[in-house]
Design brief:
The protein is of the alpha+beta class. Among the domains are: 182 residues; 75 residues, no CATH class. Helix content is 52%, strand content 11%. The chain has an eight-stranded antiparallel beta sheet with strand order 4-3-2-1-5-6-7-8. Helix 1 packs across helix 6, helix 6 packs across helix 7 and helix 7 packs across helix 8.
Amino acid sequence: MKKKYSLRKFFNDIHLWLGIASGIVLFIVCLSGTLYTFHAEVEEMLEPEKYRVEAPKNTAPMLAEALLSKVQEETGGTASAISIPRDPHRPYRITIKKSPKDRRGTAYYVDPYTAEIKGTSKGPASEFFMTMFRLHRWLLMEQNTGRIIVGISTIIFAVLLITGMVLWFPKRLKNIKQGLKVKTNGNWKRLNHDLHNTLGFYTFPLLLVMCLTGLCWSFGWYRDGLSSVMGAKVFGGRGAKPTQIEQVVPDTPARSVAQLIQLTDEHLPYTGDYNIYLPSDPQSAAVVYKYQTGFFALSAYDKAEFNPYNGHLLKLDKFSDKALNEKIVATIKPLHTGEIFGTFSKILYFISCLIATSLPVTGTIIWINKLKKKAAKKKKAVVS
């Protein structure tokens, strides 16, 4: 008697054939994402001398203006931003633009005690990690084409995760414990099955978050739809221009970087790192971003804008004051990259993404084993 085609079989077929169709792309995207997770830490490990400075006792860092002047003179460009860490053994980072067309500029690491330029943000592994980034986002293809392929594969991966969770639940609840552990003393087929089934279960929440956030870079319709659902614009802060000053008093000196930091601390009284964007024209406000740091620090910033001439606060954007939906939307990028809770969450994401890389492999092996088993049964039936 022929078995009835059940709902579970339907989910199994979806999981199987979508997995086979997208396996190679998902393997590449997950592997490149895994390798990119700790790119900053690896680059620092390769050039530790560039990211550490000697902090002489009883010696304060040089004035930021002196450092900016020195770097501008040596590079022949104009400073657009300066990053000041709370750690006295870390260099300052000064962004220099050499032409109006230079949108991002070049980041220089500078010793705040000697004004020595220790290097730029490019290092021996920069090209490798940029290749991993392009592989992860566009498969090294033309951006529009690669983005669509990665986006479709990401949607498929989300479906695979959901159908996989349905298949993970056993038909009998008393057998649920079997899906919570990897049986290491079984044969290699059972071990492979458990690595796919059990590890997929434990990484499901983080992998689903990676999928749902990653789609924001692939499809405009998805990004707009998520913005509507969340009631806040995804990537809304991108390209935001500083507040414009209504009236500028001629020949009025601008506040120093140290004064801007002091003003920021009055409104944001906690220890953290600073990223200061200098006014690009006389009518633009000075913008200060302040971040909390640490192993478990939330990857979010507070933003203050000041009139650079009289120091008046023009705008204060505190993350803690945002509604929950706005907080989620504001942290789409760190939710995708794993930086949301600092190094702690990056470790979890790295492990999860490494497991995700293995899922197409272990899943394919399960499928091949089932094909061999079916072939053996047919052969045995013919012989008998």
